[in-house]
């Protein structure tokens, strides 16, 4: 599926195992792709608190814990669920596709 003006193909679905995180870099975006209970979620990879990479963090259900200062976010909507983080995480809308993880392109 080629990239269109409104959609970005990130990776094949089978690149992300259940309960795992996969880092994707595309254009100027660094993203974390999660697979939980068969559903895909996408957030920015960089923690909002410090230099931690969320794709290197610990996933517990729908909560990602940053490996840097152990702040936690809900990957479904990006809300902070544990300090020291205070700024919510940017999430991306995943679009249905048969074989790939596809998101709506962020608005500038």
TrEMBL record:
The keyword Mitochondrion does not apply. Pfam families: Rieske. It comes from Roseibium marinum. This is Anthranilate 1,2-dioxygenase ferredoxin subunit. Residues 8-103 form the Rieske domain. Keywords: 2Fe-2S, Dioxygenase, Iron, Iron-sulfur, Metal-binding, Oxidoreductase. SUPFAM superfamilies: ISP domain. GO terms for molecular function: 2 iron, 2 sulfur cluster binding; dioxygenase activity; metal ion binding.
């Amino acid at each position: 599926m080629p990239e269109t003006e409104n959609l970005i193909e990130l990776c094949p679905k089978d690149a992300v195992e259940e309960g795992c995180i996969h880092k994707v870099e595309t254009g100027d975006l660094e993203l974390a792709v999660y697979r939980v209970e068969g559903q895909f979620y996408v957030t920015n990879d960089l923690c909002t608190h410090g230099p931690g990479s969320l794709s290197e963090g610990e996933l517990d259900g729908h909560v990602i814990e940053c490996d840097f200062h152990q702040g936690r976010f809900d990957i479904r909507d990006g809300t902070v669920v544990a300090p020291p983080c205070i700024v919510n995480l940017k999430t991306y809308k995943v679009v249905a596709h048969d074989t790939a993880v596809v998101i709506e392109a962020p608005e500038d």
